[in-house]
Amino acid sequence: MKTLHNFWFATVVPALIGFGFAVLSIRYFEQYGWSLFLGLPVLVCFLSAFCTSFRRSIPFSQAYWTSVTSLLILGGFILVFAIDGLICLIMALPLALMLAVPGAALGRAVGKACMRGIDPVVPLLLIWIFPGLIAFEAREVPVPQVRSVTSSVIVNAPAGRVWDIVVAFPQISEPPGGIFQLGVAYPVEARIEGQGVGAIRYCTFSTGSFVEPITDWERPKLLAFNVTANPEPMKEFSFYKKVHAPHLHGYMVSRRGQFRLIERDGHVVLEGTTWYTHSLYPLWYWGLISDGIIHRIHGRVLNHIKRIAEAT
């Protein structure tokens, strides 16, 4: 019993168990779903709080912060063994901290209940069934939903001038800031081969180029395109030169996009829209993050076009 109460046992052992399940989900099943981002933090925090409160009464704050420490150790294992990078762990941290509350509360309650002679079968049962949960989720992968993000700026320039810059804009000289400095891919320039429907536009990002066959060419009102090739969405920050995280390939995919130019009262409302699919779950959490990133990408491009058009 004293071993269970030991701080390092109550934090490192649950983190090791969680690391094993993370490797199973990410490396074996290449699955970034509910079991990984919801179930795993709850499980790790449950086990940590259970060990800390086994057959004794402790404050919830002690159970919670011990559980959070276990989560941070789990993140350290993921970094050290190059399962994922720092940026994705930081993005997942707010969700994990929220899930630590029910995980720690349940673990504390079960641990304290063992004072009445109840056998500690619940932790063992959870550890036993969790791999099955990961495997089941991997077999029932839902079809990714198409999401759309629209951003706009007002440009004080003729629509024809704005159109020419939209079709192929020169290199963006403004240094990347914010999330782009952390490794998220950012736009650099765009070029086009040909004109009209069927032309191929290449939008170059810091990690590679999007290949965009033109599907609508209504000068100077609408430029629309499909996306047939996507570069990696980010460069992971890690101790290692390259982290081969599966989510860098095919989990956030741009499907099509468009620029719409609307003339109003001597200026142009320039709208940029991206349609994309997202395969990280839960969508109510990761979808908000990805939408925000795309808005930042749109803003970098649209404001660059605005500066050039208004300065010409």
Strand order of the largest sheet: 1-7-6-5-4-3-2
End-to-end distance, in Å?
Answer: 75 Å
CATH architecture of the largest domain: 2-Layer Sandwich
* CATH topology term of the largest domain: Alpha-D-Glucose-1,6-Bisphosphate, Chain A, domain 4
How would you describe this protein?
With 312 residues, the protein is an alpha+beta fold. It folds into two domains: 2-139, no CATH class; 146-311, START domain (Alpha-D-Glucose-1,6-Bisphosphate, Chain A, domain 4, 2-Layer Sandwich). Helix content is 49%, strand content 21%. It has eight helices and seven strands; from the N terminus they run ααααααβαββββββα. A seven-stranded antiparallel sheet has the order 1-7-6-5-4-3-2, with helices on one face. Helix 2 packs across helix 4 (60-80), helix 4 (60-80) packs antiparallel against helix 5 (86-113) and helix 7 packs across helix 8 (283-311). The chain is elongated and about 80 Å long. The mean pLDDT is 92.
